[in-house]
Design brief:
This protein is mainly alpha-helical. The strands form 2 sheets. A 3-stranded antiparallel sheet has the order 1-3-2. α5 packs antiparallel against α6 and α7 runs parallel beside α9.
C-alpha cells in the first residue's frame, strides 16, 4: 500500500472538510469502506472522497443515514431521497402551523371559555383521526348504499382539514366532530335524510339514490342564490318520496312530509352550515336538501293560504257585492 493510491483518514478528512471522528463514525456505520494499512490504520481508496462528499451534502439537507445508504448503494436515486425528505419537511411544517393555529384558537377565546375550547379543539389535534370520525359517521348513515356511492358522497360532502387552517376553521371543524359524536344528531340526520316520520318506504337504497339525484337537480338553484320556492326541483323531490312509499304527490302528502321538514333539527342545519365553511362555493347534498325542505315549507304555506281564500264568486269592491260567473261581465 502507498499513499499515492490510498488516503489516510487524515488526508481524507482534509480533502473533504469532514472531521476525522466523523469519518470514523461513517466507517463504523458501514457507509464508508476502509482498508487497513500494515500498521493497522484505516486507509481509503481515492473514490472515497466523492462518496464522503456526497454523504456530507445529503446530511446537510437533513437526509437520514438509512436513506443515504440507499443512495450510496444505488438502490434509490438522489431525486427520490430528496423528494421524500421534502415531503417529510412539509408534514413537519404543517404540524407546526396547525399547532400554532390551535394555540391561537385557545388563546383568542374568552378567559372563561378557554377550558371549553381546549376540550373542543383536542379533537382536531390529529387531522387524519378527525377526518376519520366524520367518515365513520357517514358510512353508518349511508349503510344501504354500495361502497362506491358512499365514497362519492364522502368526496363531495366530507371536508378535510387543510394544513393552513386558521383558528376559526379549526374551531368549526372541532364543532363538526363534536356534533357527530352525539348519538342524538345521528338519529336526527338519519330521520332528516329519509323523512322517516313519513312511513311506508319500500326500498331504502333506491330512496337514497333518488334523494341524491333530487339534491343534484336542486344544487344549481342553491349555488345561484335563489331563495327556496316551489318548482320543478321541489316537484322532483316530493315525487321521489311519494314513489318510495307507493303514494302520489298531493297536498296532504306534502303536509305530511313537512312534519319532518318544518322541524328539521337545528343541529342538522348547523352541521351543514359548518360544512359550507370548508366546501366554499360547492353545494353540499345537505345544503341542497335543506333548500328543498324550505321550498316544501313555502309550497305548503302557499297552498294553505289558497285554501283559506274566500270564493272568487263573491268580491266586495267599495262596499258593493257583485256576483261573478263564467261568461258574465260587470262594469
Amino acid at each position: 500500500m502507498t499513499h499515492i493510491t490510498y488516503l489516510t483518514i487524515g488526508e481524507l478528512a482534509a480533502r473533504t472538510g469532514v472531521a476525522v471522528r466523523t469519518v470514523r463514525f461513517y466507517c463504523d456505520a458501514g457507509l464508508l469502506a476502509a482498508a487497513r494499512s500494515p500498521t493497522g490504520h484505516r486507509v481509503f481508496e481515492p473514490g472515497a472522497v466523492d462518496r464522503l462528499l456526497l454523504l456530507r451534502r445529503l446530511r446537510s439537507f437533513g437526509v437520514g443515514l438509512t436513506a443515504i445508504e440507499d443512495v450510496l448503494d444505488g438502490t434509490r436515486s438522489i431525486a427520490e431521497v430528496i423528494a421524500a425528505e421534502r415531503v417529510a419537511v412539509d408534514d413537519e411544517l404543517d404540524a407546526l402551523n396547525r399547532r400554532r393555529a390551535l394555540l391561537r384558537a385557545v388563546e383568542s377565546a374568552a378567559p372563561d371559555t378557554q377550558d371549553e375550547h381546549l376540550n373542543l379543539l383536542a379533537a382536531v389535534i390529529d387531522p387524519r383521526a378527525a377526518h376519520d370520525v366524520l367518515v365513520t359517521f357517514w358510512r353508518r348513515q349511508l349503510t344501504p348504499l354500495p361502497a362506491a356511492a358512499v365514497d362519492g358522497f364522502l368526496g363531495m360532502n366530507v371536508p378535510e382539514l387543510s394544513a393552513d387552517a386558521n383558528p376559526e376553521h379549526l374551531i368549526a371543524y372541532a364543532e363538526l366532530i363534536a356534533a357527530v359524536s352525539n348519538p342524538d344528531i345521528a338519529t336526527a340526520m338519519y330521520d332528516t335524510i329519509r323523512h322517516r316520520s313519513t312511513p311506508g318506504v319500500r326500498d331504502e337504497r333506491r330512496l337514497l339514490f333518488d334523494v341524491a339525484d333530487a339534491c343534484v337537480a336542486a344544487a344549481p338553484r342553491v349555488a345561484a342564490g335563489h331563495p327556496p320556492c316551489p318548482g320543478a326541483e321541489l316537484d322532483h323531490y316530493v315525487d321521489v318520496h311519494a314513489t318510495a312509499r307507493g303514494r302520489h304527490d298531493t297536498p296532504i302528502f306534502r303536509r305530511q312530509l313537512l312534519t319532518d321538514a318544518a322541524g328539521a333539527d337545528h343541529r342538522v342545519r348547523r352541521y351543514w352550515q359548518l360544512t359550507t365553511r370548508f366546501t366554499g362555493e360547492a353545494v353540499t347534498s345537505g345544503a341542497a336538501q335543506l333548500w328543498l325542505f324550505d321550498a316544501l315549507s313555502d309550497s305548503v304555506t302557499r297552498q294553505g293560504e289558497a285554501d283559506d281564500r274566500p270564493p272568487l264568486s263573491r268580491i266586495r269592491t267599495q262596499g258593493t257585492t257583485s256576483t261573478m260567473s263564467p261568461g258574465s261581465s260587470h262594469s
